[in-house]
Design brief:
Helix content is 34%, strand content 25%. A hairpin with a 2-residue loop joins strand 14 and strand 15. The strands form three sheets. It has an eight-stranded antiparallel β-sheet. Strands 5, 10, 13, 16, 17 and 18 form a six-stranded antiparallel β-sheet that branches. The protein is elongated. It is built from twelve helices and 19 strands. With 555 residues, the chain is an alpha+beta fold.
Length: 555
């Protein structure tokens, strides 16, 4: 087995994998990104009405308009951009949230600590929208046997239009009220300092002489725009769409598959979310209650919903129903606080088991050095240290191979017309000199999973987003704007190659000489943090191999 050839194929295969990942295209049919105003009238209203979960005594396809409103209930308004304009504004230290008085729908969220672009720090990332052309809403509500109740179609009452988390406050509550037929429901949103999860609590009081039967539901509705892939935009390679967790398995849902593979689950302890690069919204039902999960894709809109089993509130009794929304960045610590395994939305792919410990180690180092670039360098050094003995054995094998180069060249010249004899004599020489030509491959094979896992950590972790290192590197999650790091990495790989034995085959030797150039081209568009990792690794490998060659007196 030829050492250099194996290294070449291992490296080439890893590059092919990452290149395929970056260049893969979405095969879904194109969907128009803009919906005309004509499409957002009756059709949109019909879609939203049909999304209302059926009450226990009503069939699923019941028309809400045909059902009489209970005495004293607020009329159900048309749910469109205009009706959602009447909002309550809530401001915390991390969120500016807009809650519509129509059903308590979350219609806008500005993330104060996350600028949309580094060059415009005063323009925050905004999630959610009531714009019909880019609808992205979080619905929640209770529906009773008459398909009424405080649903997302119902006008709710509020005492204030603005709520602000004060300097000495740890949390803030935003109450909305609904009353009909002796039943009063107070819907309370709770936001905490420094947190992106939003508690939703229903306090139900039944002062009528009849039992009140209802169910609760959570719903995420979003226009689906198939992403346009671009090698210059790392955001375009992260999954953008609905996901669901059933308490055991995490699934990314493809809207075009809903017709053939409908989502219909009944379980306790799950959640649903809509994710994009670095950010997400999630709806987390109470883990103690069984919910039915379903999804639909109509008129370019993806709707995913969780609706509970029915419950009864006896006359004179009170009941509390709880749920949670999450609207914000993919901060793994807060995701885990919100719901079990919600951190799976940080999409590390098949190497998540390796990526998560790497990210944890990066976090620990960052807590000390306060710079993600230096954290990457230090973690690379620690990884290199962990595999030092393995790479040292490989380096010694390479040094021995380098010493054997003249004798291997002589054998090649002597048996240039007899490949079988050449292979036989080379193997005898290896055995006699106690050299294993495959020993140099193992460290490279071991590093490939770390390399790919590190790639996803740097691409997916919002902590790396717009994180500066030094000088011209102002964002470790995007490419080097001047391609300096890739060029330095190519030089380091070239020096490393010069310290290793050259392949006896002239053609293979030329291919190996071209390898640093090929890698420089590949890495030119990778996140600069990843290039920094590979540059650091290459420099450490050069120093280690030079030291081994010096000790073994290899020229």
């Amino acid at each position: 087995m030829d050492n250099q050839r194996t290294i070449l194929w291992v490296l080439f295969a890893s590059m092919v994998f990452l290149t395929w990942t970056k260049w893969r295209t979405d095969n879904a049919p194109p969907v128009d990104a803009v919906v005309s105003s004509a499409q957002t009238g009756d059709a949109a209203q019909e879609l939203i009405v049909s999304d209302l979960p059926a009450g226990p005594a009503a069939p699923v396809d019941s028309d809400l308009a045909s059902l009489p409103a209970p005495d004293g209930a607020q009329p159900a308004p048309s749910v469109n951009a205009a009706s959602l304009d009447d909002t309550i504004k809530v401001s915390t230290d991390v969120l500016d949230l807009h809650i519509s008085k129509t059903g308590g729908t979350l219609v806008k969220a500005e993330l104060k600590k996350y600028p949309l672009n580094k060059d415009a720090p005063d323009v925050p990332v905004t999630l959610l929208s009531a714009d019909p052309a880019a609808q992205y809403l979080l619905f929640s509500g209770l529906v009773d046997t008459s398909r009424a109740g405080p649903t997302h179609l119902t006008a709710l009452q509020s005492d204030k239009q603005d709520y602000v988390l004060g300097p000495g406050d740890d949390s803030i509550e935003v109450p909305l009220r609904w009353t009909a037929n002796g039943v009063t429901v107070e819907k309370v949103f709770t936001l905490q300092r420094g947190r992106y999860y939003i508690g939703v609590t229903y306090r139900i009081r039944n002062e009528s002489d009849k039992s009140w039967r209802a169910l609760s539901y959570l719903q995420i509705r979003k226009h689906y725009h198939p992403p346009e892939r671009s090698m210059f935009d790392v955001d375009s390679y992260s999954f953008d769409g609905p996901v669901i967790y059933d308490g055991d398995k995490y699934d990314k849902l493809e809207p075009d598959d809903f017709a053939d593979e409908p989502v219909d689950l009944t379980l306790a302890g799950g959640w649903l979310a809509s994710i994009q690069h670095h950010f997400l919204t999630a709806a987390v039902p109470s883990p103690d209650t069984v919910f039915n999960y379903d999804a639909r894709f109509d008129n370019d809109i993806v709707t995913i919903r969780a609706s509970s089993e029915t419950f009864d509130v006896a006359p004179g009794a009170e009941e509390t129903v709880k749920a949670t929304f999450f609207v914000g960045p993919k901060l793994q610590s807060q995701l885990d606080e919100t719901a079990p395994e919600l951190s799976l939305t940080v999409d590390y792919g098949i190497l998540a088991l390796l990526a998560k410990p790497l990210f944890w180690l990066l976090e620990q180092v960052h807590s000390l050095v306060k710079n993600w670039g230096w954290s990457i360098i230090i973690v690379t050094f620690l990884i290199k240290l962990a595999f030092y003995k393995l790479t040292e054995a490989s380096g010694r094998s390479m040094a021995k191979m380098r010493k054997l180069q003249p004798r291997l060249k002589a054998l090649q010249d002597r048996y240039k017309d007899d490949r079988q004899a050449l292979s036989q004599h080379m193997m005898e020489l290896y055995k006699r000199e106690k050299v294993n030509p495959a020993a140099g491959c193992l460290p490279m094979i071991v590093q490939i999973p770390f390399f790919i896992a590190f790639y996803w950590v740097l691409l997916e972790s919002v902590e790396m987003r717009q994180a500066p290192f030094a000088l011209w590197i102002t964002d470790l999650s995007s490419r080097d704007p001047f391609f300096i790091l890739p060029l330095l990495m190519g030089v380091a790989m070239f020096v490393q190659q010069k310290l290793n034995p050259a392949p006896p085959d002239p053609v293979q030797a030329k291919v190996m000489m071209f390898l640093p150039i090929m890698f420089t081209g590949f890495f030119a568009f990778f996140p600069s943090g990843l290039v920094l990792y590979w540059l650091t690794n290459s420099v450490l490998s050069v120093v280690q191999q030079w030291n081994i060659n010096r000790k073994m007196a290899v020229d």
